[in-house]
Amino acid sequence: MKSRKVKKLKWKIKPGIVLAGVLMLKVAEMVVFQRVLHWYQDIPVNNKEELIDIIVLLLIMSPFTIIVMRQQKTMQEAEERYKGFTEDSLVGIFSYEDARITYVNSRFLQILGYKREDVIGRDFHDLIVPEDHDLVAQSIMSKLHNHEEFSVLQIRAIRKDDKIIEVELYSTILIRDGRPVISGSIMDISERVSRERTLQKLAFYDQLTGLPNRKSFEDRLLEVSHGKGTETARFALLFLDLDGFKQANDTYGHLAGDLLLKEVATRLLNCTREEDLVSRYAGDEFLILLSKGDRTLAMEVAERIAGAINTPFIINGNEIVISASIGISLYPEDGKETSILIKNADTAMYQAKGAGKNTYQFH
């Protein structure tokens, strides 16, 4: 309460001092000027006229002084309301001028874990990961060249404790005293991003093996088959079913069966290249997309997979032996539609089972 009284006193005193100073200067100027003039013209000084001039000056200056005082009070109150609004905001607010941070509110500091003196005067790029520097720099340059007034970016910021968090950056450009100032806000969206990634993983990845699921595989297959669009484009599709898995699952239990599937997924990944796509299609069925794969590559990979899967697994101290029957379809020979390619690979897989299992067959 005391500080508020002091603030009110300040805005009352300052215009009063200014008025008193101006009056003193004007009075001195009038007195000296008139006395010099009277001396020069040898005219006696009229004190009444001087007093009237001073009263007239007071009457003229007083309304202007009152207007200035009211404007200063209004501006100070507006500034205090703005500061109160920004400091109490739920988002981090900042100002950026001449490649330096000039203002941050309390929430900004709270989000990034800094003290005010650690941030003011620093380049904004110091607070974000290097990989996002170009993205932010392009946005700033676009605003400065009037190509963009407002933008929203999702970037990664670096907290004082070196923890990287996901933030949403809102920014716009203002003109202050003829100079461009970027004003903006940040929101910590780490929890939201984490939830989105979890939902995406649930939607497109198998929770047991971590491999892409059926939906993810079919989307990718559709993209590859339609994206290439030429007769010379090639890839191979391998449809794999585990022989003996049901018996192992029934004998050693579902927990052992789950561990076995995870081990199978690991071996499949080790048998393929980074550009290939291995997915768990359903149950003990797996689909593999060999990018730029021809008949020769498909045969080599199928032989490698058959040998890897037929190597005994050790699950919970038990040796489990299974095998794989693999069906292969080739694009574009065996179809150009994804459903046809999968169906033909599935048919070839059953042919491999009929041929004695632990082998592969082309459609």
UniProtKB/TrEMBL annotation:
Residues 233-363 form the GGDEF domain. The keyword Transmembrane applies. Keywords: Membrane, Transmembrane, Transmembrane helix. The chain crosses the membrane at residues 54-71. InterPro entries: DGC-Regulatory_Protein, GGDEF_dom, Nucleotide_cyclase, PAS, PAS-like_dom_sf, Rev_trsase/Diguanyl_cyclase. This is PAS domain S-box-containing protein/diguanylate cyclase (GGDEF)-like protein. Residues 97-147 form the PAS domain. It comes from Mesobacillus foraminis. It comes from the Bacteria. It holds the Pfam family PAS_9. The keyword Transmembrane applies. The lineage of its organism: Bacteria, Bacillati, Bacillota, Bacilli, Bacillales. Signal peptide: none annotated.
